[in-house]
Amino acid sequence: MPKVQIAIVGCGGMGNRHLRGIQALERSGLGNVELAGLVDPVRAHAELAAAEAETHFGRRPPIAASLEELHRLTPGVQAVDITTEPWLHHPLACEAFERGYHVMVEKPMGITVRACRLMVRAAERSGLILSVAENYRRDPLNRLARHLIETEAAGRIYFMMQHALGGGRGIFITPWRHDRLRGGFLLDLGVHFTDILQYYLGEFDEFFAAAERIEPIRYKPERDRPDPFYQQRLAQMPPTIVPTCEDFSAALIRMKSGATVSWSLAMAGQPGLSHRHLFGTKGRIDASPCARSGLPLKLKLDDRELVGKEILEAAPRFELDEVTGRLFGPRCTGYDAKQVDADALLLAIEYYDFARAILEHCRPEVDGLEGMTAVASLYGILESAASGQPVRMSEVLSGAVEAYQAPINAYHGIGTPGFSGTTAKPP
Questions:
Q1: CA triplet 374, 379, 381: central angle to 5 degrees?
Q2: Distance between CA 206 and CA 192 in Å, rounded?
Q3: What does residue 354 show for φ and ψ, rounded to 5 degrees?
Q4: Residue 115's pLDDT is what?
Q5: From the CB of residue 226, how many other CB atoms can be counted at a distance below 10 Å?
Q6: Could you give phi then psi for residue 5, rounded to 5 degrees?
Q7: Is residue 416 very low, low, confident or very high in pLDDT (cuts 50, 70, 90)?
């Protein structure tokens, strides 16, 4: 099988997780990517990732400090996978397209809608592939949920509840996730859920929302993942930080399909509560609000409740695509959540789709436009909350409404005269 030569750009926690995704794809027998390089300006991070790669693949990949050095050292690289902090996505992606690389970028696609637009235009100019690594939709249980929606197993969906309320006062993964100018918690986690909304229900129409900061101080967590990079990062984390971004949001969202969504997302206060329900004219679909949970779907029809393999009675034509079926089984209705997370199976699916788009010259599942709408819909919530008025999706996408994003764009120089998208303010 032909393999796309790819370099990972950003050797932090997510970059190291992506290494496991490549390994999982290779074990599936459908491997169509090969790690050809690692890029990080912090040599120690790159060395740590290189050592991890050597344990996975039996060889140590070349290391570069920049895309320019990567281009010079490893001319065979065809694509890059950008796993850096969000405010670096647009300058790195734009430079990568200028150097002739196809690009896969972690979510959120860009720090603002303007940043996303720069990336889309750069991809269009270059004629190269832009793919966004939205992993929640790759979960086989979300595939099954969408199949039930499309086949109207519960009838026409007219209302959805999407609530993810996490409690606590700890620093959420990294301090920058509490900094409005660097994206913040709601953007970083929220695009997972806005992407699921568009995956389930189609295009967004209008938002009416509220958002605020509940916790005035955030505290260093006692533990993190056992991986060496995460342990190093935890040791360097300050004991407390003062957040500058909202940690709670609530909204009513109208979809173009006519469905209404009740939304909430928070990481504050005590205690947490998360759930996802879709209400149809013939029944209800209950789904876990998070990927990699392994929790089964439930389909409730009048006095019947179908769970697990029983749900396939209502979905006789459901079957996963080849790579997902190879990793989970063709008609998966549940799995070992810890193993799926440890093996980064959803990332393997992202890699396969990206490489397939390159090799077959076709659209990836989540292209730049769809990645941008996931970001724009989250900002639709924040723009509405800031203005106290309903906001249309078309206004956010066009830039007619961007008051909330204006200081973020100004801080990073996005959209200033002569800006090409290939520079960014350092962290």
A1: 105
A2: 19
A3: -60, -50
A4: 98
A5: 7
A6: -80, 120
A7: low
Rounded distance between C-alpha atoms, residue 363 and residue 354, angstroms: 9
8 Å CB contact between 163 and 274:
yes
pLDDT digits 0-9 by tens, 360-378: 999 999 999 999 999 999 9
Quick check: pTM over 0.85? yes
Q: Take residue 242 and report the two structure tokens written for it.
A: 């003062």
Give the pLDDT mean for 201-229.
Answer: 92
Residue in this structure with the two tokens 């329900």, named with its chain if needed? 277
- Whether the bond into 108 is cis, omega within 30 of 0: yes
Cα–Cα dist 394/178, whole Å: 28
Give the closest residue to 113 by CA, choosing from 339, 323, 375, 422. Answer: 375
Pair of tokens at residue 345:
């199976």
Q: What is the dihedral sign for C-alpha 410, 415, 419, 421? A: positive
140 versus 227: the higher-pLDDT residue is 140
